[in-house]
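FORM 12-B: Structure-to-Sequence Request
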């Protein structure tokens, strides 16, 4: 789908509907159905990094994403961790799934039983390798996943809607737990529609309850009839969606300020995302991936004769997708505010009219046929509706706000050494044991490591992920005896208080006093950093104890 200009390209539109990314066309006003940076953020490696950062802070809150390793940089770590896990539990017979970073529609995905099975021809392609979920929920003996549509209506303030129905995409061969013999049977293990459509067992159906693609609501009805707690399942799915978007928003805000700087006229954004979720046998939802450009096709190709295809309507797709697009447009309707203003003015005029006119008005309208009403919204708001339950998870968002403040130059996404030094100085993080020379060493060490990973070489400097690692390093050194999330929260509060005092030119008070008490309780000993000796969060060096703990979360 391309951008549609109903009145010609020279006239501005209220809504621009792009096909792939925010940068499809130059837009200076109105609303765009893409966020800058979203395509990059939901790639498999970037998504894994974002979720992993949250897993470091809140491991129990983010246990809905399979244990993952990033290739090629973490290949040695992958080999070592698997060997250690097998040594600690010889009965463990794992399976792993390898997903190319730039792959889509199941392209290049394969299963392995051992790290030595990674395909090394031509070097390891950028990919994510994950522990395969061996015990999925089955329906009619088939494995399936769920495609849920999520509307990110606004980034600041954060506003999220979830469609009340979605699609269930089925494999086309009865499921068996992976063995060396069936490891390559993609129609058994991979739920991708684009793969299974080529299976001779694929069933196109006009009924939402049968076939290889069904509505999610039909699955919920079936589960409910078996006594499953469907309400809890929905609650878990909503939680998964909100937590995933909270993991993505810090870097999305960096991209957003780069393309749409604050204080300058420009478009606003919204976006429909496709969340792919797998239900485990115990009904625990697991996130597989997020799609920035979910297919909105409502028909499928049918081969009439060899090489001759025809587009045939798909009632299941139409039932779900038409409602999502219709209600997205209703929610972002630029005329809604104008209509509300007109209605308010009309109500004010009516309230000032005489009582006789008010009584007579209904009688005059009795002969009119009411306008046909639109169906109720299929999109349910989940944020900020449930914001209080998740506010403690928005720590990295606050770290990103510090990063953005010190970028200095509009349109950039990387922090230079001067900006980093200014951050340290303004937040009063340097002292006798942490000199500005140590600040420079910390900056160079972490920035060099992240740049070696090939993170956006268009700009030089420290990317947000590198800044987050540096910030975690500072927090761990300053508040040694606290858990990581409390260390980071304390340092964020410390920095915010000093910056507020700087902005308002008044002494630090309020939260700063409480933070100082936390410092005393934590028995800080200054910021004496030795960057080269500090293990980066990226490397996740494992210990036998940690791996044993991880085993309790086996799928």
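FORM 12-B RESPONSE
SEQUENCE OUT:
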């Amino acid at each position: 789908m391309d951008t549609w200009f109903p009145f010609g390209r020279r006239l501005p539109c209220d809504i621009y509907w792009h096909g792939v990314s925010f940068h499809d066309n130059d837009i200076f006003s109105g609303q765009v159905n893409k966020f800058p940076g979203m395509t990059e953020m939901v790639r498999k490696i970037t998504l894994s990094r974002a979720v992993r950062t949250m897993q470091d802070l809140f491991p129990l809150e983010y246990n809905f994403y399979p244990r993952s390793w990033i290739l090629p940089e973490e290949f040695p770590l992958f080999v070592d961790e698997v060997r250690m896990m097998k040594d600690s539990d010889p009965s463990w017979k794992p399976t792993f799934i390898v997903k190319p970073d730039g792959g889509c529609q199941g392209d290049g995905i394969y299963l392995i039983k051992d790290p030595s099975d990674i395909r090394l021809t031509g070097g390891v392609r950028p990919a994510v390798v994950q522990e395969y979920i061996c015990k999925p929920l089955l329906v009619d003996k088939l494995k399936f996943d769920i495609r849920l549509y999520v509307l990110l209506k606004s980034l600041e303030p954060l506003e999220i809607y979830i469609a009340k129905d979605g699609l269930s995409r089925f494999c086309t061969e009865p499921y068996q737990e992976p063995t060396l013999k069936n490891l390559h049977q993609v129609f058994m293990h991979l739920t991708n529609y684009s793969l299974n459509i080529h299976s001779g067992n694929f069933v196109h159906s006009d009924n939402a309850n049968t076939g290889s693609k069904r509505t999610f609501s039909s699955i919920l009805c079936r589960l409910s009839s078996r006594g499953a707690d469907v309400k809890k399942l929905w609650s878990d799915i909503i939680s998964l969606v909100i937590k995933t978007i909270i993991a993505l928003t810090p870097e999305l805000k960096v991209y957003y300020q780069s393309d749409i700087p604050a204080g300058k006229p420009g478009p606003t954004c919204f976006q429909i995302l496709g969340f792919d979720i797998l239900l485990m046998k115990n009904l625990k939802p697991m996130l597989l991936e997020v799609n920035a450009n979910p297919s909105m096709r409502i028909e499928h190709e049918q081969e009439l004769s060899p090489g001759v295809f025809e587009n045939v309507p798909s009632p299941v797709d139409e039932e779900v997708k038409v409602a999502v697009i219709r209600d997205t447009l209703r929610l972002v309707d630029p005329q809604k505010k104008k209509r509300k203003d007109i209605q308010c003015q009309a109500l004010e005029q009516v309230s000032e009219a005489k009582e006789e006119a008010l009584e007579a008005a209904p009688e005059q309208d009795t002969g009119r046929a009411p306008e046909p009403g639109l169906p109720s919204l299929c999109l349910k708001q989940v944020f900020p509706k449930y914001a209080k339950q998740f506010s403690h998870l928005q720590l990295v968002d606050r770290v990103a706000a510090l990063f953005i403040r010190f970028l200095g130059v509009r349109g950039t996404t990387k922090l230079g050494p001067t900006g980093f030094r200014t951050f340290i100085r303004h937040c009063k993080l340097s002292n006798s044991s942490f000199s500005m020379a140590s600040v420079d060493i910390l900056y160079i060490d972490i920035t060099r490591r992240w740049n070696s990973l090939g993170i956006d070489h268009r700009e030089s400097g420290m990317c947000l992920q590198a800044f987050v690692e540096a910030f975690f390093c500072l927090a761990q050194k300053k508040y040694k005896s606290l858990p990581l999330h409390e260390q980071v929260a304390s340092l964020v509060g410390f920095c915010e208080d000093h910056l507020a005092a700087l902005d308002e030119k008044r002494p630090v008070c309020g939260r700063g006093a409480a933070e100082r008490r936390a410092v005393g309780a934590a028995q800080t000993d200054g910021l004496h950093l030795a960057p080269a000796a500090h293990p980066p969060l990226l490397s996740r060096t494992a210990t036998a104890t940690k791996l044993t703990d991880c085993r309790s979360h086996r799928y």
